[in-house]
Structures are given as C-alpha cells and as structure tokens.
Design brief:
Rossmann fold, four-stranded mixed beta sheet
Length: 391
C-alpha cells in the first residue's frame, strides 16, 4: 500500500478511543504479535542506549561541543550569580522537557521559570527581566516557527541558549542565539530511520539527558561543597521520601558538635542561610575536591580499561595484519586521512602519552556517516576517538 492509499484508508477508518480496526485482542502471551512488541521494546531501549553513549562521547571528545557547553554554563551561572533567573521555553514535547527542567533547577535552588512561546506573545514575555535573566529554548529539529517568532521580541540583552539535535536548523543560526547545547543525533539513530516515524523519542531523551546534566553541573558551580548541597536539597524537599532520606543522610554525617545547629537550619527556614556561610571559602579552595575528582576519574579510567570481546578480536586481527601504519597524530588534511584509511587495515596513533589502534574499516564508516549527516570535517576526530582501542 503506497503512502497515498494508506492515508486515504486511515482517514476512512473509525479511529475513536473506543475501538480501532487496526488493533486486535491478545488472549495468549505466546502470541507472535506480542513477541514482536517485546522485541520492539528491546530494540528501542538498545538504540536509546547507543544514542546516550554517543552523546557522552561527544561531550568528552568534541572540542566544539565542549566550548559551547562552557559558554552556556558561564552564561547560566553568571545569570544566577547576579540574581537573575533561567527561563526555559519549547513547543510540543519540548515544552514538556522545559517543564521538567524548570522543576529540576528549582529543586536544586536555582531560580527557573517556564515560558510557553504562544503565551509569551500574549503578555507572558513580562516574565523575562531585561538584562538580568537568560533564556533556554528547546527544539530538537531547530526549526520551531513558534520559537522563531518569540525570539523577535526577546531583548538583545537577554542571552539565548538553544538545546537542539540539529546544527542546520533555522534556530541554530539565529543571530540572537549566543550558544548551543547540541545533542547530536546520528542519522542512523534517528526515529524516522529506525521506526519509520518521526515520533520524538530518542531526540527528546537526548535533550532531557543533556539538560539534566547541565542542571546538576550548575548546582555544583553554585555550591561546590557536597555537604552544603545535600543540606539545602533536604531543606527544599521537606516532604515525601526524598526529604526523609536526605534528613537521615544529613543526620548520619553531622558531627556531634554541629548536629543540633545544622538540623535547626534545615528545619527552620529563617536559619537556612546559615548553610551558605562557608560557601565562598569552599568555592575558593577546591584542592581537596579536585584531588577527589582526579581519583574518581582514575577509577573510572581503570574500569573502562577492561576490553570488550570485540576489542580483543580487533587486537588479534591487528597483530596479524600486514597493512598497518603508525602516525603521531590525526592528519589535518582530509585527503591525507582518506589515503591512510584506504591503504591500511589499521592505524596506530603513537603520541607521547598514549598509544591506540584505529580500525580503518570503522574509520571509513564514520567518515561516510559524517558526510551523510553533512557535518564539518573537523568534527570527525572525536568520533574516531570513540572507536579507538588503547594499547
């Protein structure tokens, strides 16, 4: 059935919530239809995982993405530092992400507010304080006309950060957008290519995950001391299971001489500001926390050093191959890079501090994908690092 016939058929069928000729009752859990549905869940979760893993590699290796992230964090942190708030906006599913992110930020003590782009044009623009607040707009496609229309009325003194899965969209190149929180969605993981539908699933997961990470990072910039953050978080969550668990956690960590004082601060809103007394001193003396972070990173690197079976197979094939070249760094010339991966089966990148192997077949596939997605040549480096094997 072609697209036109399918559309005509669908328009003639009763699609009420009461019944549908497209569906059927399932009476047996061994039904092949049910098995297909279970397989779909497994496939979707697997693809979501791949997309998140790709996002993590992007912000670990892509210098452009890291630079944009730093600019965004500076903007948001300075907005909060001068007493402003973070306003978030999006259309459709992106507005749901905006709502959730606002709730997360406020729960962390970071002043945030929601702004619907349609309501903004009917008076709600007044929520933005000119020269004080910053604006985050969310659009996976980067082509939301409602957001483009709203931006026409945003003062130039308000920095605008775009969360998107596309560098090519109209919003990505809008003159009022000062930085991008770019969650790259490779074409082979796009909803249309995977499921035949543009239903927002993987793209929304990426945008929400990135905003969750930024929210936590902002809270750490705002208050660097974990004990103070925990105490404040407990204060802002006096009810429910979260509040109870944090109070128990705080009670266990408090020393005997300061326990009564800090419990009073958590219980009494008038005393809450006492928790900030050592905030500036803590932020100005991060030696201990930096060392702890280094130790944590070393442990993480140690965990990631265990080779997967596929990596072991690659190493064996590399040792048996006669088509191997050693280089000290990736070539800056695209032509030179193509020559290397075309003439060799493996490349050994032997820099001063580390040595790694690159499977040229994987490199060729990455190159094809970069060209297909119309990405810039310089963006290929971090993708190659994602598949390299340290030796």
């Amino acid at each position: 059935m072609d697209n036109y016939s399918a559309t005509s058929y669908a328009s003639s069928v009763n699609l009420s919530r009461d019944s549908s000729t497209f569906s059927m009752d399932i009476t047996d859990d061994s039904s092949p239809i049910l098995s297909n549905a279970v397989d779909s869940v497994d496939r979707i979760l697997s693809n979501q995982t791949k997309a998140i893993r790709h996002l993590a590699s992007q912000f670990k290796y892509s210098s452009w993405s890291i630079s944009q992230l730093k600019n965004s964090l500076i903007t948001l942190n300075n907005t909060l530092h001068r007493g402003g708030k973070i306003v978030l906006s999006g259309m459709g599913k992106s507005f749901k992400i905006s709502t959730k992110t606002v709730a997360t930020l406020n729960s962390l003590g970071l002043h945030a507010a929601n702004l619907h782009p349609s309501e903004a044009l009917h008076g709600d623009l007044g929520i933005i304080k000119d020269g004080l607040d910053s604006l985050i707009i969310i659009s996976a496609s980067g082509n939301s006309p409602e957001l483009s229309l709203m931006l026409q009325h945003i003062p130039l003194s308000v920095p605008v950060i775009l969360v998107t899965c596309s560098k090519k969209g109209a919003l990505s190149n809008h003159p009022k957008v000062t930085s991008l929180l770019y969650a790259e969605l490779p074409s082979h993981l796009s909803e249309k290519n995977l499921y035949g539908l543009n239903a927002p699933t993987i793209s929304t997961t990426l945008c929400l995950s990135l905003l969750d990470a930024v929210s936590i990072a902002l809270s750490e910039l705002n208050v660097s001391d974990l004990n103070i953050r925990q105490a404040l978080f407990g204060f802002w969550h006096p009810g429910g299971d979260i509040g109870a668990k944090f109070r128990q956690s705080l009670a266990g960590k408090m020393s005997s001489e300061t326990k009564d004082e800090k419990e009073a601060a958590v219980a009494n809103p008038a005393e809450k500001d006492n928790l900030y007394k050592s905030h500036n001193e803590v932020n100005n003396d991060l030696n201990i926390s930096v060392e702890n972070d280094k130790s944590a990173d070393e442990e993480k690197d140690k965990d990631e050093s265990f080779l997967k079976l596929s990596d072991i197979a690659t190493l064996r094939a590399y040792r048996e191959s006669e088509l191997v070249s050693t280089i000290t760094k990736f070539p800056e010339s695209e032509l030179e890079f193509l020559q290397l991966i075309s003439l060799n089966e493996y490349l050994v990148i032997d820099s001063n501090d580390k040595k790694a192997i690159l499977n040229c077949e994987s490199a060729r596939e990455i190159y094809r994908q970069v060209k297909k997605d119309e990405q810039e040549w310089y963006e290929i480096n971090w993708r190659l690092k994602e598949v390299m094997i340290d030796i």
